Amino acid sequence: MYQHGEFIIGGLFEVQNLKAFPELSFTTEPELPQCEEFYMASFQQALTMVFAINEINSNNKLLPNITLGYQIYDNCLRLGVAFRAAMSLVSGTEESSNYSCTGPPPVIGIVGDPGSTQSITISSVLGLFRVPMVSYYATCSCLSDRKKYPSFFRTIPSDAFQVQAMVQILKHFGWTWVGLLYSDDDYGIYAAQSFQQEMQIVGGCVAFSEMLPYDNNGKDIQRIAGVIQRSTARVVVAFSTDLASLMDDTIRIFWETMFGCKFEVGGKKVDEQQEIRRNKCSGQEDLSNSETAYTDVSELRASYNVYKAVYALAHALHDLVKCEEEKGPFTGNSCADISNLKPWQLVHYIQNVKFTTGFGDHVSFDENGDALAIYDVMNWHPRSDGSIIVHVVGVVYEEAIIGKVLTLDEDALFWNFETKKPPDSVCSESCPPGTRRARKKGLPVCCFDCLPCGDGEISNSTDSPECFTCPEDFWSSAENDCCVPKEMEFLSYDDPLGISLTTASLLGTCFCVLVLVIFAYHHNTPVVRANNSELSFLLLVSLKLCFLCVLLFIGQPQLWTCQLRHAVFGISFVLCISSILVKTMVVIAVFKSSRPEGKSAIKWFGSVQQRGTVIALTSAQVVICTVWLSSASPTPHKNNQYIHSKIVYECAIGSVAGFSLLLGYIGLLAAVSFLLAFMARKLPDNFNEAKFITFSMLIFCAVWIAFVPAYVSSPGKYAVAVEIFAILASSFGLLAAIFAPKCYIIILHPERNTKKAIMGRSTQKK
Asked: Residues 101-108: what's their mean pLDDT?
């Protein structure tokens, strides 16, 4: 098809199909190939180019006083034919001996080719001469390479956007396990590669990848159908230049159970719900009233892209013509010479062209020559008669600022399932929060197991690849999906153990007060007076302090309680043991003074000496505590080592040496008291105080010897409980061993509370 004009625009369209080239022979002239199978839809696209050029020529505002012409070739769906046509367009077909390089080129640009393979080959050559080529249907993302194809443009989005749009829909429905079918050409191969890369980025996997044959061989189709049916994927993505080949009867059963989602370029549509059908002509039809592929205007997407391609060339030429001298874009601010137009000059203007079509669509090209993308999302709806009707259910478009946007009318979607809902297509179900994904060996990354997070670890999102350790003062929840503050563990007054120990402490204090009252009431009786009532009262007061110091060990540790608990404990017990030690020494001195050789011993154990000895021994412990608290004072400490899920709030002793010296001093006094009492245990009196002191010291030493290993091996609050138990046990032991026999006589056997009974000699055993 040809029309003369001052500037010619070339066109390449798939109007017919060349099934096979004629056989070649070296003895006869080759026959010209014969194209057949006329495609009315492609012819409609070619006429769209004619319509656009005629519309431009009648427009007084666009290219005034300039007439455009066209020269349109049929590529016959063959690379060889398309390449030959393109070379004819850019070099001319007239035979002439005048090889002049002046004047405009045969064509200022080419609209086409619709095929990616043909466009790649033709653009590789045209790019060397910077001849612009604007394709309306070639989508291969490889054509966006500006270094290889510097003069290639297109009004259809590239496969890169198409693939990303596909992936957006997959993400929208949560499909991560999909099959892939693609045609054996540049479009299919590049699209399949790009799709697999995009799926890896978003965490999806391709369950199988199969190439569709060109010849639609029955065995190959059966093989592909078998692969699909055996696969666990419930979604199949297809990139095919001939989607109709997928609708072969051998595979139709599969497709009728699937959601048909096909992307096509967005364009102007008269009726979006026209039935797709192919009509055959009988030769008797009236073309003005017939419904044919030529008169069907429901699918004008490709035609609209042709329309935009022609206008892009026209607007670029218009901008070139109206260039003002010394304001041009070329060297020295020059403009292009319209009489000697260079193709590369027009390429510059096409790259920067911006206009709005009569339908309100903005047209421009990015740095790669790609147009702003827009795709309609089509849904196949079956009808009762077995035909298929196509509905537009959404759109994917590209905005310069916000990027790619998917809008989908889910209410308009048809799902051919009983549930009428989208299918699930995942290799493994999503891992809930509290678990992590563990990839299955030998399978794609979409196939995984869900392993629960360990103690102290969480995952708070679905399909988390790993678990995260909680901060130091936090622990994982029961579901391992969030970090919660660790439980603070200490021996509290609300704890059953704390209540029991507090009760025992108060009970022991009450017993001390009771004994003190009994001794005060009977202070003039022989039993009380014979046992050195002053030391007995001091001993009872110190025992009461021992019982009360237990209360400092219970409750949340504070700085003052940590400092006081061991100081009060150490001083109280030294006061107690030193009183017992002096009492033992007095007992021994009294019995020795009854002998002639020991009369002078009692003068060293008068009341002043007794008080002084107790004060001196206790002062030594006060000095130890003062040095310990001033150098390395005990402080509250959060311990995470005993139980990782809890914080044990305890008092750090600060200085081990200070704590050891405090306990060692108490142990030394107890050992001396025990030895002295043990030596005096056989004194021949009915009421031998030394025996009771020996027994009490035996209990005291046994308790604190057992305390050391029990304290070291007890975790957390139980270590405090062990220490409290040792304090209570030793205090109760001293109280019972020393004062219980006296109270027994005072209350239950007052007849024995006489000087004669106390001073009497015990009967010798036979």
From this structure: 71
List pLDDT tens digits, range 458-473.
998 988 889 999 988 8
Judgement on whether residues 315 and 339 belong to the same structural domain of the protein: yes
Helix, strand, or coil (residue 247): helix
What the block records as the tokens of 308 is 């935009």
Closest CA to 214 of 182, 254, 262, 261: 182
Do 584 and 733 have their domain in common? yes
> Domains in the chain: how many in total?
4
Q: Which of 187-196, 386-395, 502-511, 562-571 has the highest mean pLDDT?
A: 502-511
Distance CA 489, CA 649 (A): 6
Beta bridge partners of 437: 450
- pLDDT higher than threshold 60 for residue 97: no
Residue 491 forms part of a structural domain: no
* 454 vs 285, residue with greater confidence: 454
Type of residue at 432: P
Q: What's the domain range around 237?
A: 159-265+373-412
β-bridge partners, 389: 275, 381
What pTM did the predictor assign? Answer: 0.56
Mean per-residue pLDDT, 524-551: 83
The long-range contacts involving 142-148, CB below 8 angstroms and separated by at least 24 positions, are 142/116, 142/186, 142/190, 143/116, 143/119, 143/369, 144/368, 144/369, 144/370, 145/368, 146/367, 146/368, 146/369, 148/123, 148/124
Query: 53: which residues sit within 8 A by CB, 6+ positions away?
Result: 3, 5, 9, 68, 69, 70, 310
Q: In this predicted model, what pLDDT tens digit does every residue of 470-487 receive, in sequence order? A: 988 899 998 999 999 988
Are the CB atoms for 116 and 321 separated by under 8 Å? no
Our CA angle for 256, 262, 264, nearest 5°, is: 150
Q: Are residues 360 and 470 in the same domain?
A: no
Cα dist from 196 to 179, 226, 338, 484, 492, whole Å = 10, 22, 48, 41, 61
Q: Which two tokens stand for residue 692?
A: 């009771």
* The domain boundary residue, chosen from 424, 450, 485: 485
pLDDT class of 58 with cuts at 50, 70, 90: very high
pLDDT value at 73 more than 60: yes
Do 470 and 512 reside in the same domain of the chain?
no
CATH assignment of the domain containing 84: 3.40.50.2300
Most distant CA pair in the chain, distance: 162
What is the rounded CA–CA span in Å between residue 653 and residue 566? Answer: 9
Asked if 235 and 360 sit in the same domain, the reply is: no
Task: For 178, list phi and psi in degrees, rounded to 5.
Answer: -130, 150
What is the secondary structure of 617-631 as a DSSP string?
A: HHHHHHHHHHHHHHH
- What is the C-alpha to C-alpha distance for residues 30 and 682, in angstroms, rounded to an integer? 142
